[in-house]
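Quick start: what a row looks like.
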Amino acid sequence: MEISVLGPAPTCPADRGNRAWIRAVCRQLQARGARIQFLYFPRDGNKRFRADQYRTMVAEWDYFHVIAPAQPLRWAPEGRYRLIDDWWDDAISRFIE
């Protein structure tokens, strides 16, 4: 079984709750025999994605790719809360197609 995971935060280092959670979920799926295709779409405020983070994630997942954003993130939500698609970017659609 192959599972594609699109994540806005790197799984390395797993030093924040969102990073630790997505890493734990993916590792559990791997433990059950799944091949993880991790697509990292940097939207967690990281200004830099370090080479050591990249190497670790390449080694950790069966497939790893960084999708570069094509447009800036709308930081201010239109309503009181950010909607699920507020961080969607056409670069993701192009990559998946």
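That is the whole record. The mean pLDDT is 86. Residues 17-31 form the longest helix (15 residues).
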